[in-house]
């Protein structure tokens, strides 16, 4: 797994490095060299333009320029001011050194000149704005960013694509869309989430010093990015000595006359994800229509109200069914009523592994008046509990419904409030979004996100079914729940990729993700078992770049 550090913690590591004798100037030289070596690796590249900003990110760019000039590249640096006029001492020194070495320097060019220069460059190095960036890019960088993105040249971003917040992954104005980002010391959350996924391209981490790995670990990473080989221990060895029950039994509880489809999708997803026996419990009013759609999955009709939602009488029956299953998923399509709130609290009090999704999460919000973190007794149980909120459901759980999390880091903070209030390793919150975090008291794991094709109604129901199936199939320790959930997210993502190949990136519906799950799991397991084969020869489904373009 690769550590992900908040930007303020990266600065602490930088300070710690200076304390062990690696100066900021030395770090800048190594950062520039790291960026230069990525340029030099590009086959056929000859003409390079470096866009340098006014701070240390610009400093890295000047170092890279001098380094590449020394290697024989045709290098031009574009800068808003003369090297002599740079305010930062270290950046000024490296800029003057680059200029003295013979690097061409263009100061504050008009847009047309810049456009011609960038279009004629094999590689553009973006060293305008780094981790010191805040707000919206001001002139001239706003215009330079446009010019970079219009150039069609190969773009390598230094540390972070300019205009992107390395912390939040948000961009309030223009931002560079890079092919590759060389980031210093460690991954940062914004590179892996939200706009970061569009902006970074592949990501290379440059450690810059041998002490970095230790110092980064000591800086308490905010999350860990999972690599394929992290999942090896979770895979079960294939065996023929199984029957449908030993392959895991899943109960799905959900549905209402308004939403009969959601629990059906969750149940089918659980079956496609390898659970041997899936049972679906729905309100009696919709049971006949649901059963007519389900050939393999028995449907249990439970007491319901006239409006087609579960009645309170269903709670004990659900608890009885759940006792006999390896895992239960509750929530898809079931609405928030006194009946469904009763079912959720009865299941929470039970002793079997439980996945709480969709309206069952909203039931918990109702039960706790949007303060689940003030009612940890509700979650206090020994058996695994995996909650799968998207950002709005997460916000409702912790009283942020008026200001829901807008970034991966704020979603992780909200998820942490929940798991820390309980304090036990048996609770895991899967904070879903375009980037997802699987958070427990021990760790936050970031699975590699799937394609945007997953952003389709019902996709979350499918994920709930996959998580329930994996929970039912594999008897993991509580400490491994975040990794198990992350693996489910990755399989969901693989299925999204396969479905997008079949139906087009905009054509995928949740049912297509379900149908692709079995093949997705096989492909995923093969790539975990034989990562080298997946990388060479065959196209791996899990490209390692942030945007799926290359190696991290
Ligand atoms: N961590 C490490 O170990 C290492 C870090 N290193 C490198 O240092 C970088 C961080 O450097 P940094 O702190 O100097 O900040 P940086 O990103 O250059 O930006 C500051 C400049 O941008 C300006 N500016 C800000 N917002 C703006 C806006 N909206 N629009 C326009 N301008 C704006 C700001 O102006 P001000 O706000 O002060 O007016 C100031 O002039 C880091 O990303 C990495 O590349 C390596 O060298 C060594 C190892
Ligand atoms: N842009 C995206 N890229 C990758 N995955 C996404 C994206 N948007 C959503 N997802 C994933 O799709 C699923 C959507 O879940 P959810 O919002 O609960 O959908 P629904 O309620 O319609 O079932 C989550 O697993 C989420 O991580
Ligand atoms: K940059």
TrEMBL record:
Residues 227-524 form the YjeF C-terminal domain. It catalyses: (6R)-NADHX = (6S)-NADHX; (6S)-NADPHX + ADP = AMP + phosphate + NADPH + H(+); (6R)-NADPHX = (6S)-NADPHX; (6S)-NADHX + ADP = AMP + phosphate + NADH + H(+). GO terms for biological process: metabolite repair; nicotinamide nucleotide metabolic process. GO terms for molecular function: ADP-dependent NAD(P)H-hydrate dehydratase activity; ATP binding; metal ion binding; NAD(P)HX epimerase activity. InterPro entries: CARKD, Nnr, Ribokinase-like, YjeF_N_dom, YjeF_N_dom_sf. Its cofactor is K(+); Mg(2+). Residues 535-552 have a biased composition (Basic and acidic residues). Residues 10-216 form the YjeF N-terminal domain. The keyword Nucleotide-binding applies. Homotetramer. HAMAP family: NADHX_dehydratase, NADHX_epimerase. This is Bifunctional NAD(P)H-hydrate repair enzyme.
